[in-house]
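Chapter review. Work through the record for Endonuclease before attempting the end-of-chapter questions.
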Amino acid sequence: MLLAALAIAPGARGAAPVPQEGLQPPAEGSVRLATWSPELTRAGPGLLLRDIRSGTDPQVAAAVQVIAAADPDVLVLTGFDWDWGGEALAAFAALLAKAGADYPYRHAGQPNAGLATGLDLDQDGRQGGPGDAQGFGLFTGQGGMAVLSRHPLGQVTDHSGTLWRDLPGNLMPPAPPEVAAVQRLSSVAHWQVPVSLPAGGLTLLAWSATPPVFDGPDDRNGRRNHDEAAFWLRHLPPGRFALMGKANLDPEDGEGRPEALRALIAAARDPAPRSEGAAAAPQAGVNARQRGDPALDTADWADEGGPGNLRVDLVLPSPDLAVTGSGVLWPPPGMPLAEAAAAASRHRLVWVDVRMAQ
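Structure tokens for Endonuclease:
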């Protein structure tokens, strides 16, 4: 269905937020696209709004600092609690504006995360648990998504109601008919978001996939994660686009089924954003057994007893966009913003500067 994006007032690049050392503004004629999971999610509805309004929450303050330093023109947030009135997002945007990063155009549709079904979707013999929601969540909107932009947003096409069984070639495991009849593909959301940039239009393809773990022998989450990426292979627009969000899957390392994600990367342009911080991270534990370039990692997870550092957050422009810069905001220890980035989230902000190719 089509949802109207919220437009408040025209805006421009912020009033000189303090940049990360080495992170310069986009080249002339370029715009900065970014995605990040600040993990601004809480255990109950309204708690994130409470923490944002308190003015004392250190994680919120660190997240504001990171975004203001990166200063993207368009930002896809994953892992941000949704509420009916959009109050948490509005309060967070107000803090960003005070820090010099003003985003007058915003969209945050209701996600599938935490959306009750009344069925035993995870087939554990009980109903009403977080695994029985359309997407895992303790309440409707936990760990939702949002788009913030300095440029006008058009009508958002929300694919989040698509049933998993209706994806051609899906990997959905066998399920009771009543479950298959309601189970949506998106664990959070799939949005097509038109953005009107000074040099022309661009369509954001935003999503936040389920992690391909925490399931049983049927590999339900691994299959769903694969199909959440595979969905975009059938919905790539003919014009300029950028795939943005949390794939929750590394194309080279960790658990999961990377075939669809690799196909997406091949269909787009991969700037391979890097950071000194990820490259400098200890290559011990599970990290020592990984194949991928550690400088490309975007999440700092436990090296012992965890998945290690992985590349799970992506900005993939279409081939007809010229890439003029890219990176992951993961400063090495002792550098500016290193403490703020670590305090905000286990994920790191990924940015790509693009210009309309001539």
